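Q: what sequence does this backbone want?
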């Protein structure tokens, strides 16, 4: 299927400027279709997230790769990426939340999007982003986190998650996401009365979906083809269910 790609400038309520990437299936004319937000891993937007946007649009959905870091902020070194991500993770309500909702609200402005059928997927840091949107009851049909941080948002009420199916794909050998995070996440979802699915992939470590992960040369980071394919196939099944 032919896909149209556009760079989209947008901003959040704090005045920060962003540049996301929009993918629209060519066969979308007058009818509105479901849409999927894609939140990048710790490096920000890379070709990996762009490839996912292309794949999703080829399924007939609108896809939007969100820019959480800011227009022109594309770290190439690990240290720079963590330095950019750090302040957002340490202040998820005041700094990160406006950026997440700016992406959601921007996606809703496109005439091709059925705003009642929006999902979000995210990798690593992006996994934390989509889980936070579920926690904020952002009106999404579903969210999928791949090897994402599972810690709850500090100092907010554990209100029920309503109308959003939560999927988590976790590497069973991922020591970056400690067992207490996994256990705590299950307790949080139960307290929130969430519709959630948690899948622990055998032998998978952190960043298991990313083919380039082995080149990072970092402990506990690596690609796992079987886990990557299984988690993606499960995501496609979820889209069929919620859309």
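A:
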């Amino acid at each position: 299927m032919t896909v149209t790609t556009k760079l989209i400038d947008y901003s959040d309520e704090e005045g920060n400027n962003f540049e996301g990437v929009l993918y629209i299936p060519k066969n979308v004319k007058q009818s509105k279709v479901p849409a999927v937000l894609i939140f990048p891993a710790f490096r920000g937007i890379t070709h990996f997230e762009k490839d996912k946007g292309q794949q999703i649009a080829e399924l007939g959905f609108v896809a939007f790769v969100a820019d959480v870091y800011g227009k022109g902020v594309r770290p190439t070194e690990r240290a720079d990426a963590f330095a950019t991500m750090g302040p957002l993770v340490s202040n998820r309500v005041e700094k990160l939340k406006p950026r997440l909702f700016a992406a959601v609200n921007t996606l809703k402005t496109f005439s091709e999007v059925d705003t009642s059928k929006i999902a979000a997927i995210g990798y690593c840091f992006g996994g934390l982003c989509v889980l936070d949107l579920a926690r904020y009851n952002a009106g999404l049909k579903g969210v999928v986190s791949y090897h994402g941080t599972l810690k709850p948002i500090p100092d907010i009420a554990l209100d029920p998650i309503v109308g959003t199916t939560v999927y988590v794909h976790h590497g069973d050998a991922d020591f970056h996401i400690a067992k207490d995070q996994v256990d705590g996440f299950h307790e949080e979802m139960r307290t929130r009365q969430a519709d959630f699915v948690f899948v622990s992939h055998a032998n998978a470590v952190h960043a298991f979906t990313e083919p380039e992960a082995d080149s990072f040369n970092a402990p506990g980071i690596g690609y796992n083809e079987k886990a990557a394919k299984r988690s993606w196939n499960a995501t496609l099944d979820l889209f069929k269910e919620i859309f």
